[in-house]
Amino acid sequence: MATITAALVKELREKTSAGMMDCKKALTETGGDIEAAADWLRTKGIAKASKKSGRVAAEGLVGFAAEIADDGMKAALVEVNSETDFVARNDEFQTAVREIAELAVKADGDVEKLAAQTMSGGKSVKDTLTDLIATIGENMNLRRASALDVNPGVVAGYIHNAVADGLGKIGVLVALKSTGDKDKLEALARKLAMHIAATSPLALSVDDLNPADVEKERNILIEEARASGKPENIIERMVEGRMQKFYKESVLLNQMFVMDPDRSIAKVIEDEAKALGTPVEMTAYVRMQLGEGIEKKTEDFAAEVAATLGES
Known about the structure:
The protein is an alpha+beta fold. It has helices spanning 6-16, 20-29, 34-44, 46-52, 85-88, 91-106, 111-115, 125-136, 182-199, 211-226, 232-250, 265-276, 301-309; strands at 59-68, 73-82, 140-150, 153-160, 167-168, 170-177, 256-257, 260-264, 281-289.
C-alpha cells in the first residue's frame, strides 16, 4: 500500500480544492494515485462542492421544528444558506432544511453536533449538504441553529413570510414557563413572536443587554448632548432620559406591544397571567433572520452568467 504523505495530500488539495481529510481518504482509496484520487473526489461530488464553498451564500431558509414532551416543550430554529433565492424554492432543499430543523431539536441547537446527525438518507447533515451542492450547483452551508426548552410551559414558533410549512426568511421562538392552559399560552407566545419578528429587540430585559452595546449607545448620546453646548449637569440628565428611551425601544419587556400600543410586553404577560390564574414567565426568545450579518457580494449579471457557463 502506497504511503500517503502530506505533500501528496497537499498536491491533491491544490488540484481539486477538496478538504484535507477528503483528499487523504481519496488517496487512500486509490493507492496514492493523484489522477485516480481526483476522479474519486469528482465521482463523490466532493471536488465540485469544494470549488463552490468559497462563494457567498446569503440566501436560503430559516427552518422551525418543535417537540412536545409530557409537561414541557422544546423547539429549534436553523439557518441553512444557499447562493440564490431560487434554490430556497427547490423542493429538495426545503425537505432537507425541514429535516435539519427537526434534528436541531435533538441536538439542542448545537451546530457541530447537528452537522454530525444522521439524516433519513443515511448520511450526516454535513455530507447531505455536500451532495446537494453537487446536485443543485450552488454553495450551501448550515450557518447556525438555536433551541429553547421549557418545563412546564410552551415554546411557540413563528415564521414570517413563510414560503412553505415551517420555512421562511425570519424565524422566532418564544418560551413561556407556566402551568396555565397550553392553548392559551401558545396563542400568547405566538403573538409575542410576531411582535419580536417586527421589532427585533436587542434583549429580553435590561440586564440581558450586551454591556458593550449599552456603553456604545451612551457614548453616542453623550457626544450628541455635548454638541448642544449645555452644562455637564444638564447633559447628564439629557443622556439618562435618552437612555430610558433606548431601553424602551430596544428591550423586549419594555417595548410597547405592536398589537396593543397602550401596553408594554411585560404588562401583556402580566395581564395574561391574571386571566389564567397562574404565573407566566417569559424565559427566553430567539430571533433568526436569514442572511443577517453576511456581506453580500454584488456581481455584474452578464459576468456571472459567463462565469457559470465557463464552469466544468
